Amino acid sequence: MGSLESPKRIALITGAAQGIGRSIAFRLAEDGLNVAVNDLPSKLAELEAVVEEIKSSTGGQAIAVTGDVSREGDVKAMVTSVVGKLGGLDVMVANAGITEFRSLVDLSVEEWDRNMAINGRGVMLCYKHAAKQMIEQGRGGRIIGACSQAGKQGIPSLPAYAASKFAVRGLTQCAALELAPHKITVNAYAPGAIISTNIGEQLDQERARLNMPMNIPMAQPEVIASLVSYIAKLESYFITGQTISANGGTHCD
């Protein structure tokens, strides 16, 4: 008789060379998923180190796939590579993003476009090509995107970042409604200040200049990884279209 065990589910996490993405990759591997970790080609060495650590600590499969999420060709190739090497795609975590503190009056068009390209278009492309693959597979799936507290509440000197993250919320709601018939849920996580991330480090530097409180609650990336762990599970099928806050109570929906 053949094995009755279900095949391992497969996750792809973008922006996974460091910070929240790296933490999510480790958590999903610990949950028993095979994982593909993505970041820019310039971060291949960091990605390969993540892969080796995941393999040695969990015994699961892990691969690195480089690519720029703002480029559709890269995202398509990334998904194709993961499917070819790991056998499919069940969980897409569109985590890659950037942040730049810049007041509106000092904001350049180039900075605005860069935020929209990576934080907005990058998430859209990951949603799109993950959805196409999951629909083709016919076994449902979980699509999860990176929003932010700044995607629910404006923050001084983050106009481009906040606008791009508000866009992720709208995109997530639309995608959830469209993909529900295929048993694909679409959700996003909205972190507050997270230690060991680019925005966390920049926030520390900007607090005094922006006259922000010095006692803003901060948490480790593992807090977000645990949230993603749950909404990636099969049992979370009744949660979709949501952007879930994790911010220590600094903003309440």
UniProtKB/TrEMBL annotation:
Pfam families: adh_short. InterPro entries: NAD(P)-bd_dom_sf, Sc_DH/Rdtase_CS, SDR_fam. One of its GO terms (molecular function) is oxidoreductase activity. Keywords: NADP, Oxidoreductase. Belongs to the short-chain dehydrogenases/reductases (SDR) family. This is NAD(P)-binding protein.
